[in-house]
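Quick one - first record:
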Amino acid sequence: MTTPPSELRAHQWVRWQGQDAQVLNLLPDPTLVRVELEDGTETDIAISEVEVQSARLLPVLEEEFEGPEDVSVPVRKEAIMHGMKVVMVANNAGGVGKTSLAMNIGYELGQLGYRVLLIDADRQANLTTWLGVSPDDVRESDTLHAVIVTESAPLPTPRHVHGVDLIPSFWNLQETEAMAKNRPHRCIADRMDALRGRWDVVIFDSAPALGEIAKRAAIASDYLLVPLTTNIKGVEALSGVRKFKDEDVAPYNPGLRYGLFVPTKYDGRRGTDRSALSFIQEELQGEPVATPLPQRETGWELAARECKPVTLAAPHMPAAEDVRRVTREFIAAIGLEPAEVSA
C-alpha cells in the first residue's frame, strides 16, 4: 500500500531506484526531499521519483510529559504539526545560555520526531561550531546573508546535523549586520511562509547585542525563548529584553509572545542566586518560567568538547535530564502538540 508523495513526512520510508530510504526532511525547494539510503549516505532526490511505503512508518509512541504547572503534553515520535512554530532565543547579554538552549532543545525536539530547523543568526557562529560545523567551511550563500541583503533570495538549503537541519553562520556575518539596517524589516519574515509544512519548529539563535539581524529574526518569530542567569546580570538583562520586544519589534510584529523564560546557571547554595531567582519569578508573574537549570559543568563541558548536544554526548549525566526537562516545559509552554498520524 502506498500514499501520494504529497504526504511525505520525516522518518517515513520510501522506495527509490529499487532501494529503501528514510525521509530526513523536506527542503525549501518543494520538489525535493532529503533521504538517508540503506548504506547510511544522505542525498536529495526528486519527490516525483519516490514511492511512499505507509506500512513502514515508524510506530507512534506516546508518552506523557510533565511540564510547568503540571501541564501534561502528549508527544509522539511520529510528529505531524498543525502549524509551524518560529522561536527566537533572545537576551541582550552574552554567556547566559542562548546557544546552549537553541542547540539542546532543538536536538531533543528532533529526537521526539519534530522536524527542526536551527538558524544561526549570530556572527560569532557558536551554534554552527557547537554542532560540529567549522565556520571556515561555510560560504556566504549558506547563511542568512542573501536573504537579508537581496529582495527575493530564498532561505539557503540547510545542512543536516545530529537529526536536525541547520542554516549556519560564519565570521563575515558582521558585514551583513551592518547592511541589515537599510533592509526591509520583514526581509526574513517574508521568507517564512515557504517553510510551512516542511518544518515543525524553527529556532533562531541570536547575537547578544540584539541588533539588526536579531530584530528581523524576532519580527519573523512567534515566540521568544529567554534565558536569564540567576545573578545581577540576569536581573539587569530582563529590562533589555522587554525593551527589545515592546519597542523594537512590536511595531512590526505585535503578535510576538514570550514562549518561555529559563533561569540558568542556578546554584541554590548561593544566597545571591536564590534572591535573583525570587526576583525573576516575582517580576514575571503571569509569564511562563521554567524550572531553573542548575549550574553543572561536567556534562556541558563534555558536550562542548565533542561538538554534540548534551543528551548525545552525556546521556546519563544530570545535565542531560535537565535538558530533557526544559524541553518538556518548552513544549508545554508554546503548545507544541502533534496531530494524529494518519494510517
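second record:
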Amino acid sequence: MMFGQFGFQSSGVRAQAQRGYRDGNGFFAVEASGFARAGLPQAWAVMSDYDRLADFVPDLVSSRVLSRSGTAAVVEQVSRVGVMLMSYVVRMQIRIEEHPMSALDVSLLSGDMRHYAVRWELEPSRRDGVEGTLLRLCGELEPQFFIPPMVGQPLVQGNVRQLMEAVVAAIERRATH
C-alpha cells in the first residue's frame, strides 16, 4: 500500500485524505473527526435520519430510505460533485448497518462508485468543560470518474471536511431547538 497525505483542521474539525493503492486498485482513504456540542441522542437522531441528510450535507441532492430490515437500511443517494470544470452526478444505493448510539457502517450496493465503505462512530465526550459527542469517520472510496492526481487528494479531503462540519452544525442546531 502506498499513500500520499495532507491533513486539514478547521473549527474543531479534523480531516485527512490519503491516496492509496492495493492490488493495483486506487482509492482514497479518508478520516475525519469533529466534536458536536450536543448529547449522543441528538447526534444519533440527526445521523440516522437518512431522508433528511440532503437538507444539510453539501452536494447531496437527495437521500431516501428504500427499505429497512432490523438494524439495516438500504438508502438511495444522489450527489452532484464538481471536479475542476466538470460536474458529475453520482448515484448510489448503500446499505447502512446501525449500531444504535455508537456507529453506522456504510457499504456500497450499487451505483456510480467503484468502491465506497465508511464507518461513522459516535462517542460521548467532553471538550473545554462542555458535554457533547465526538464523531469519527473513516473509510475508503473511489469514484468511477477520473480525478486528476494533482487535485484528487485535496478535493476529497475538502469534501470530507465540509461533510463533517455540516454534520456537526446540524447536530448542534437540533440540540438548540
